[in-house]
Model the fold of this input.
Amino acid sequence: MGYYDETDLTREHVKPTKQKKSIKPFFTSLLSGVVGGALVLGVTTYTNQQEEPKVSTDNASVETFEQTDDPDSAVVSTEKLSASSNSIADIVDSVSPAIVGITNLQSQNSGDIFGNFSQRSDSESVESGTGSGVIFKKEGNAGYVLTNNHVIEGAESIQVTLFNGDKVEAELVGADALTDIAVLKIDAKHVTVVADVGDSAALRTGEDVIAIGNPLGEEFTRTVTQGIISGVDRTIDVTTSDGNWALNVIQTDAAINPGNSGGPLINMSGEVIGINSLKISESGVEGLGFAIPSNDVIPIAEELMKNGKIQRPFIGVGLVEMSEVPEYYLRENMNLPENVKEGVIVGNVSPSSPADEAGLKQQDVIVAMNGEALSSASELRKYLYTETKIGEQVKLTVYRNGKKMDVTLKLTNRDATNA
Done:
């Protein structure tokens, strides 16, 4: 499943064949098809670049800013909204000025009327995709916007459409493909309202929520849809530009469509409790939308604002799922014991990486890290990124040519190895 609003759950499986093939040609083909672009761990893994609490009775507040000539001296006033008396219309009126449209602009070579691009060297920026975002912070002379990584991925420039219809340039502060979060910066003079961020851990299944965004682009700007929290603590397997990942999400039946990506999911106190990110779209499926919980979003956003990127432990291997390799190859060519049914295969090893220095080799099958059983690349990444730290030593349990062994390596910062 990719980070797209039109998520297709159809999966293709590699069927085994009885014909024995040589190791090298098979892995060369496999690596170019499966690992190519390689999942280089930290380990190394949406766009329609058009291409989700207990109902609190606490008062919600929306920060508003009176404009002055000096952005740093903006006067802050707070409007209190009663959760018990708010209608959806009240919430929409209060929060909408913090909702923005986002346009991903990329260069396109210009040619003559016959399509002879080689005769001209100029290029122009064209709309590659659109999405939504929400202003969640104002500091000094900058306003900060939350959106999805897949909305802005690959952009050469980013344009933000404000509540009043004005279009302004945005600077990319930082983005993270695995968690699908990006932070943009705009001039503070354009910020009149900052949305409150709520506590997604307080959510309960069945609570009312609304989604605001730009489905299908600016023609339907700030469309409001209503639904409920259909489930909390869901995990969705997604495919990103940095590899496969198990994304923690909130499930909702509020309509989420292409262009809603990056927009807020809002509770009845007017607080942002999620960033709408994807939906399952296939025949016979209705109302399965997902948002990244606010409690997951904010720490990522804060690190992006501080460092411009997310620092994660690095091993330095490309990975191949066991399900992608025919059974006969695992048993006859790699001599993997019959009782080993789960794990992840080392497809390649980055030179001078921790894996290289520890002696990991292509076709090693990693079955555990620090004693924790692993069945997929996604599980390996999840454990590595959430349970270990840069500089820590970890023990990998691997099978090599049928023999079980332990390999100890010291995790590094990916940037310390890869320029």
